[in-house]
Design a protein that fits this description.
The protein has nine helices and 44 strands. By secondary structure, it is mainly beta. The protein has a six-stranded parallel barrel. Helix 4 runs parallel beside helix 9 and helix 6 packs parallel to helix 7. The longest helix has 14 residues. The relative contact order is 0.10.
Length: about 600
């Protein structure tokens, strides 16, 4: 069809309306799993001005400068091209310390939350495809309607399940199945000027070519406007001309690629695109999300010499609240005993509903030998923090033959965290915080009711010494969450984090917890949840985390709590390194714009 598209990232626009962004825009990318995303590129051929409410997640790449306001943010970094970069940024940057070089690339901290890297040259702009559409793909399909080469249909046709070339002046198709091969459709107009409720299945490509001047892309009864099966959203392409005006309605979800370099594009509030968009002048409303199918990338807009830069940024101060489960199912220690290096009977026998736990702080494991009349003997090694059960006929000893006089304490326990490792994990996390960085911490506990062990404070030593947990009563997560959330003052600019640990389900329903989650969202608190044990409300814990931008972690036993808390601490406390790592570009043989040669053969017999 003569179209060779260029795809840099999730969104490519000639310009943003009025050159200004005043809302939230998130551009991420994925390779094999649409849920496994990270920040990615979008390009604008002009510069950008950011209003106070502008919050960009991704890498804007601009053939111009970025002009931020004091309250705007770009995470992680923007790339700009400007031959007078140092001169143009001097009015914004407070001092020379905010400008420096990394691998011959100038970096400038334009504000606290906006960093710009200067590219050595601009990227190539997208060219219009009017001729390729009107004289090529669309023109060919329109001109050959009724021939053996192009099949015409009207709005009564709702399914296409055979490969080939089609044309319609009134598109209202519900499903395109590409299992038989590629499908090319020329469209004069869409039913009611709307594209909605289209499902694309199969492993081959579906292409639509149109020059309609006004098209609305909208959800159909809650379903996506276009839904493409599998992770390869590049299996559907919508091509448009400079005459095309495309609007994604509020809340619309769309899979696929829109390639209309000179068109007018509007992305209304809460629009979500998985695939890619190339357009002309673009309007972006609040909370637009684009998840880029990285298999579509054909080129990198950042010059190679500017790609290999890493910038280490000090993290923001933290306000961390720990909300710890203190319900009865956390368990307790009934008694303790000592295992020595001499093989002997266990210090006590455990009953059917209790366990013996090896002291997590022990330097040694223990060995338990159990013999049966009909099956011989077996020896089991129990590591520090692990649990086992004893019967009177067992032999036990310290698992170290060279030990002389070694002793290991074992505890008879019940519950999920009888040794109160959750307290140790919390104290380790507090140790990783930094008073000189203006970090604060607070500790709260819940069972049926809530308790404030220590309110948010800069005195981290005092907070750490307050961590003393209990195990009694039922489970009501909100009883601990609510007083913790009350600690977050609107006057404090610290990043807000909550670590919520639970080993079970709410005893009285989830209504109060859901209200607490809404409060956390309003107060911009990120909640990390840790589920301990087997009797969990995992759905609630996952939703609590994901709705607030956090993550859910599971711990099979209390011995894993330190590791899980450590992962959260590492994510929040480590100074971040900003870099853009360009993955391998797709093999040309996998690209979506391959030419197809159809060969017809006929056998001919030539007589002597």
């Amino acid at each position: 069809m003569g179209i060779e598209p260029t795809i840099y990232g999730g969104l490519s626009a000639d310009s943003i309306e009025d050159g200004t962004v005043e809302s939230n825009l998130a551009v991420s990318g994925y390779t094999n799993d649409t849920t496994n995303t990270s920040d990615d590129l979008f390009t604008v051929e002009d510069g950008l001005e950011l209003e106070d409410d502008a919050d960009i997640e991704g890498y804007p790449v601009l053939n111009g400068m970025i002009d931020p306001s004091a309250e705007s943010a770009v995470d992680p970094i923007s790339y700009v091209w400007d031959p007078n970069f140092k001169t143009n940024t001097a009015a914004v940057v407070d001092d020379d310390d905010d400008q420096y070089k990394r691998n011959e690339t100038w970096i400038a901290h334009l504000t606290d939350d906006v960093i710009a890297a200067n590219m050595s040259r601009p990227f190539e702009t997208h060219e219009g495809i009017d001729d390729e559409i009107n004289d090529g793909a669309l023109g060919y399909l329109r001109d050959n309607v009724g021939s053996d080469m192009v099949t015409e249909f009207d709005s009564t046709r709702d399914t296409i399940d055979e490969s080939g070339r089609y044309y319609t002046s009134d598109f209202d198709v519900d499903e395109i199945d590409t299992s038989d091969g590629d499908v090319h459709i020329g469209v004069g107009d869409f039913e009611d000027d709307t594209l909605s409720g289209l499902t694309v299945t199969g492993e081959n490509q579906a292409y639509i070519y149109t020059d309609t001047d006004d098209m609305e892309i909208t959800d159909d009864g809650g379903d996506k406007s276009v839904s493409v099966s599998g992770t390869r959203k590049g299996n559907f392409w919508l091509y448009g001309t400079s005459a095309t005006e495309i609007t994604f309605d509020d809340g619309t979800a769309f899979d696929g690629v829109v390639y209309a370099p000179d068109s007018e594009l509007t992305l209304e509030e809460d629009a979500t695109i998985t695939g890619a968009i190339v357009a002309g002048e673009t309007t972006i409303d609040d909370d637009v999300t684009i998840n880029f199918d990285r298999k579509l990338r054909t080129d990198i807009p950042i010059p190679e010499e500017n790609q290999d830069i890493t910038i280490e940024e000090a993290r923001d101060p933290l306000d961390v609240t720990f909300v710890l489960d203190g319900s009865g199912s956390m368990g307790t220690v009934y008694r303790s005993g000592t295992v020595t290096d001499t093989r002997e009977e266990p210090p006590f026998s455990t009953s059917w509903d209790t366990d013996a736990t090896v002291d997590p702080d022990s330097k040694y494991a223990i060995e338990v030998e159990r013999c049966s009349f009909w099956g011989g003997c077996t020896t089991t090694t129990v590591e520090p923090g692990e649990t086992t059960s004893f019967i009177n006929s067992d032999d036990v000893r310290v698992a170290n033959e060279s030990c002389n006089g070694c002793e290991v304490t074992v505890f008879e326990t019940t519950g999920n965290d009888p040794l109160e490792i959750r307290a140790d994990a919390t104290q380790d996390f507090i140790n990783a915080l930094n008073e000189s960085n203006d970090d604060r911490a607070g500790v709260f506990e819940f069972d049926t009711n809530g308790r404030t062990l220590h309110s948010l404070s800069y005195d981290l030593s005092s907070v750490k010494s307050s961590v003393s947990v209990e195990a009694d009563g039922g489970t009501e997560m909100a009883a601990g969450m609510s007083p913790a959330l009350d600690q977050y003052s609107s006057s404090n600019d610290n990043e807000r984090v909550m670590v919520l640990l639970s080993d079970g389900k709410n005893s009285y329903g989830n209504g109060a917890t859901e209200e607490a989650v809404d409060d956390a969202i309003d107060k911009d608190v990120t909640i990390y949840t840790v589920g301990l044990g087997n009797d969990l409300d995992e759905e609630l814990l996952k939703e609590t985390a994901t709705k607030t931008g956090g993550e859910y972690y599971t711990a099979d036993d209390a011995g894993e709590l330190k590791d899980k808390f450590g992962l959260i601490a590492e994510r929040e406390i480590t100074d971040k390194e900003i870099t853009f790592e360009v993955g391998d570009l797709p093999d040309p043989g996998e690209s979506s714009n391959d030419y197809v040669v159809n060969i017809e053969t006929q056998q001919v017999r030539v007589e002597n």
